[in-house]
Specification:
By secondary structure, the protein is an alpha+beta fold. It folds into 2 domains: about 260 residues, CorA soluble domain-like (Beta Polymerase, domain 2, 2-Layer Sandwich), CATH 3.30.460; about 60 residues, no CATH class. The protein has 10 helices and 7 strands. β1 and β2 form a beta hairpin. The N terminus is likely disordered. It is found in: Cell membrane.
């Protein structure tokens, strides 16, 4: 969990901070050193990462008091959950929105939490409303001694983590779809129609939330800020390629769900047609009996075979003959 060990961090809404220097691992900063480090900056080419809890009422006030962040960044915090994107603000800074998804197939609920990121040459700010697995994984990597050369390297790590989450969702969805397809081939749907519809809606929503906006990313990769080196730009490009692969798989899976829905609808239509044919056949076979019973049930004179000793069996034979003829006609219409 994201818990700061320094007194006063919770009052400021900042959970923890790390200082990075060239060719060294990140060093966790005590809460008392955050304002001084942000005022003096890092003259040796390093940078600082601060992680902020937006659920705290004093977090935005603390950021405004100690950091000169663009107003566009604060405006983005009030937008709520949005699709994944990374774009360049006025000047040389970057703003990104990264979504963390908690979803289990079989449950209709999808929990989506957003992470807002600000990055420039010497500062990385990450802000969230709820604890995120991606940030916990990044913090664990920093504590293990993984070296990051710039704030964009941390951002690339977060984007790669989201691409991994999307790939895992695709794998889980593929297994669920395989099970439904096996049941459908075995003609044991077991409410597969509702499952397919629910899964398709969820996948379309996840695709909308997790897919990065291509226009902003394309502009950034073609005109990156001056402080981004070639390695950082290459890392962003590789992350975009990972997203493209995962999104292609997700689109193919969505199309597969659509085809399964159409196949299941065709099976249900065929089953309805068979049921309707059975009801029609029963009606046709009962027609001679109803007609003869209606005619001979009239209380009028002149009913044939009324005095005949074998009249009953004669009528049974006639009805049986009409029934056989009607059945032959009905079954004959079903033949190609």
């Amino acid at each position: 969990m994201e818990i700061s060990r320094e007194y006063g961090a919770d009052q400021a809404g900042v959970l923890y901070g790390f200082a990075f220097r060239p060719d060294t691992a990140g060093l966790e900063l005590p809460a008392t050193q955050w304002p001084a480090r942000l005022r003096t900056g890092l003259d040796d080419g390093g940078f600082v990462w601060l992680h902020v809890n937006l659920a705290h009422s004093g977090s935005e006030k603390w950021l405004r008091a100690h950091l000169g962040l663009p107003e566009d960044f604060y405006a983005g915090l009030r937008e709520g959950p949005a699709s994944t994107r990374i774009e360049q603000l006025d000047g040389e800074a970057l703003r990104a929105v990264i979504n963390d998804v908690i979803f289990t197939f079989g449950s209709p609920a999808v929990e989506v939490s957003s992470l807002w990121v600000y990055a420039d040459a010497h500062l990385l700010i990450t802000a969230r409303l709820k604890p995120l697995r991606s940030v916990d994984a990044l913090r664990a990597a920093v504590k293990r001694g993984v070296r990051f050369g710039s704030p964009v390297d941390l951002l690339v790590h977060l984007l790669s983590g989201q691409a991994d989450v999307l790939a895992q969702i695709v794998r889980d969805a593929s297994q669920a779809v395989d099970a439904i397809e096996d049941r459908q081939l075995a003609e044991r749907p077991r409410h597969s129609r509702a499952e397919l519809a629910s899964m398709r809606r969820v996948l379309v929503r996840l695709q909308r939330l997790l897919a990065p906006e291509p226009a902003a990313l394309f502009r950034l990769l073609n005109r990156p800020p001056a402080w981004l080196d070639a390695d950082a730009v290459q890392g962003l490009r590789e992350s975009s390629e990972e997203f493209a692969v995962a999104l292609n798989d997700l689109g193919a899976l969505t199309e597969r769900l659509k085809l399964l829905q159409e196949e299941l609808a065709a099976q249900l239509n065929e089953q309805s047609n068979r049921t309707l044919f059975t009801l029609t056949l029963v009606t046709v076979l009962a027609l001679p009996i109803n007609i003869v019973a209606g005619l001979f049930g009239m209380n009028v004179g002149g009913i044939p075979l009324a005095e005949h000793p074998h009249g009953f069996w004669v009528l049974v034979g006639l009805i049986a003959a009409f029934t056989v003829l009607a059945g032959s006609w009905a079954f004959g219409r079903q033949r190609p």
